[in-house]
Design a protein that fits this description.
It is a multi-pass membrane protein. The chain is of the alpha+beta class and about 400 residues long. Helices cover about 55% and strands about 20% of the residues.
């Protein structure tokens, strides 16, 4: 039988109603609050990151390859689609490749006029990630016989033009000679990102080919989705080295640098916040063990007088601190994971899409992060428990027995 653990268990029951009991409750609450806040903070941070990145990737994927052009126009010279797609599929890091083309236009309704960019897409290599942003209506259909006349409008563009699902709209394309097309609003999307919602209308890429008199083999560019976004930089460098001299490669992190910088800033702030939380929880644990030792000085002296070693007595307080830590972590996980589950399934806390790019606080479940957070709290708490126990070696039995 472990004597240190047995005495620690007996002390736990004997502390009820004492000052030490109040202090230990505070220690348990501080650990629980720290664990809960860290779990919720990381779940929300990762939720924001994944939601915003998912919205950005739905428009620009991870990489965009197009014709090298010095005028920075949205309308670029065409490139050969099938041959480029075939070359890119040779790289194991590439997951999907979607061709696209863009063309500026003016939408005219009975009451409003608005300039937009028609982005033509295709689903030849799988479903478009834009489907996840659909808010009303249905997604585009791509018939085999001819180009689809259906389009997707953003909620902002639809509200400005007072259009709804099923309405028709005239698109005027500024070219020589000018062209007019009538499109039907098939659906309405919303990303919450003004860079997209205020500009882009989604349609069939074959409409742009017809307007530009391109053959089926030409596209405006291709969007590349990688299997691992974290390897964006090395994969982009590898692909760039194997591209033709007249092609350029744009990384999504460069195209929308302000959004990714904002996400990085959020990450730094949360890390600083979490370090402070762990420091407070550790300080509380050190203070708690110190108070326990001071209140049990007389008992320590008696134990030393009957032959107990410093190591055995330190182990006794170590097990006491371990018990407090585990209880605090248990309650913290229950509170943190419980809050995340409620928000995830009920969307209890809303957000203003104008400021936060989404209409609710997002939650992302990452078991690895939860395990790492618990391990960090557990390790720092045990270290905090060990520090004050070395005071025991300085306690003399004769002085301690007289201590009151």
């Amino acid at each position: 039988m472990n004597v240190s653990r047995y005495i620690s268990h007996k002390i736990d029951g004997a502390d009820s109603g004492s000052f030490t009991s109040s202090v230990t409750k505070i220690a348990i609450i501080s650990i629980a609050m720290g664990v809960a806040v860290m779990i919720v903070s990381f779940a929300i941070l990762e939720g924001f990151r994944n939601e915003i990145q998912s919205k950005i990737f739905s428009f620009g994927a991870h990489l965009q390859i197009s014709k090298y052009d010095t005028n920075n126009s949205l309308e670029v010279e065409p490139i050969g689609g099938p041959s480029l797609v075939q070359d890119l599929h040779r790289f194991p890091q590439v997951q999907t490749i979607q061709p696209f083309a863009r063309k500026t236009a003016i939408i005219k309704t009975r009451e409003e006029v608005l300039g937009v960019v028609l982005k033509g897409i295709s689903e030849e290599d799988g479903q478009s990630p834009m489907r996840q942003n659909l808010q009303a209506g249905t997604f585009l259909t791509f018939p085999d016989s001819a180009a689809s006349n259906d389009i997707l409008l953003s909620r902002k563009v639809a509200d400005k033009l007072r259009l709804k699902v099923g309405d028709d709209a005239l698109f005027y394309f500024i070219q020589n000679p000018p062209r007019v097309r009538k499109f039907t609003v098939k659906g309405i999307y919303q990303t919450g990102l003004d860079e997209f919602d205020e500009v882009y209308v989604i349609g069939d890429i074959r409409q742009i080919r017809e307007l530009n008199a391109w053959p089926d083999s030409l596209v405006g560019g291709v969007e590349v989705v990688l299997k691992d976004f974290n390897r964006l930089d090395p994969v982009a460098e590898t692909l760039y080295e194997n591209l033709r001299y007249d092609l350029k490669l744009d990384k999504i992190t460069d195209q929308y640098a302000q959004l990714f910088d904002w996400l990085q800033l959020l990450n730094r702030n949360v890390i600083i916040f979490l370090v402070l939380i762990i420091f407070v929880a550790t300080f509380n644990m050190v203070a708690t063990i110190f108070i326990m030792i001071l209140e049990r000085t007389n008992m320590i002296g008696v134990l030393k007088a009957i032959g107990a070693t410093d190591r055995q007595i330190r182990s006794m307080f170590f097990f006491r601190g371990l018990s407090l830590t585990l209880r605090g972590m248990l309650f913290g996980n229950l509170v943190g994971l419980g809050f995340c589950a409620i928000q995830y399934y009920t969307h209890l806390i809303p957000l203003d899409p104008e400021n936060y790019y989404m209409d609710r606080v997002p939650i992302f479940w990452d078991p690895t992060i939860i395990v790492i957070l618990n391990a960090a709290v557990f390790a720092t708490s045990l270290l905090a428990v060990l520090i004050p126990t070395y005071l025991i070696s300085r306690i003399k039995p004769v002085t301690a027995i007289k201590f009151d």
